[in-house]
């Protein structure tokens, strides 16, 4: 019998063949893992005294912020926080 690469019904022909993809290291589904990771991230942020703020801006402003943050070697979030704090001190 010829071996067809797309045929997965004859398992003994493919027993030693590694399947592509990420190996399963957790018994949880990907969705459950993401939910747990997000919950843990929120707990870490709360301990650090951080609060979430959402902001919608046009793409040109975001590009300018990204460029400035890269030049100053900081994250965009840190740059926005620094700018707001400087403005509030006035």
Automatic annotation (TrEMBL):
Family annotation (InterPro entries): CopG
Composition bias type Basic and acidic residues, residue spans: 1-20
Q: Which domain of life is it from?
A: Bacteria
Where's the Ribbon-helix-helix protein CopG domain? 51-89
- Tell me which Gene Ontology terms the entry assigns under biological process: regulation of DNA-templated transcription
User: What Pfam families does UniProt report for this protein, alphabetically?
Assistant: RHH_1
Locate the region Disordered: 1-29
- Specify the protein name: Ribbon-helix-helix protein CopG domain-containing protein
């Amino acid at each position: 019998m010829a071996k067809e690469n797309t045929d997965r019904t004859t398992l003994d022909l493919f027993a030693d063949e590694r399947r592509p993809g990420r190996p399963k290291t957790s018994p949880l589904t990907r969705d459950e893992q993401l939910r747990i990771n997000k919950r843990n991230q929120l707990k870490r942020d709360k301990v650090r005294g951080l609060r979430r703020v959402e902001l919608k801006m046009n793409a040109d402003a975001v590009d300018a912020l990204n460029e400035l943050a890269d030049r100053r070697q900081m994250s965009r979030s840190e740059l926005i926080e620094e700018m707001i704090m400087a403005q509030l001190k006035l």
